[in-house]
Amino acid sequence: MTQITRISLQYRIEPIAQNLVDYTMAEFLFKALSFAIFGAAMEVQRTLGSGYLEAVYQAALAYELKLRRIPF
Description:
Layout: H1 3-25, H2 31-48, H3 54-67
Helix pairs in contact: 2-3
C-alpha cells in the first residue's frame, strides 16, 4: 500500500471510529426510562413476532406502554 493510500484511508476511517467511541461512551439522559421503553418494545416483538403491519405494532406498543404506566 502506498503512503498516499494509507493517509487517505486514515482520514476516512478515523473520524468514523472516533464517533463510534463517543457514542458508546455517552450516557443516556434518561437511562431508566430508555430501558423501560426498550423493554416494552421487546415484549411486543416477542409476543407478536414478525409479519404484521406497522399499525398493529403501534397499537400493541401503546397498550404495553399503558400497562407499564409509561406516558407517551
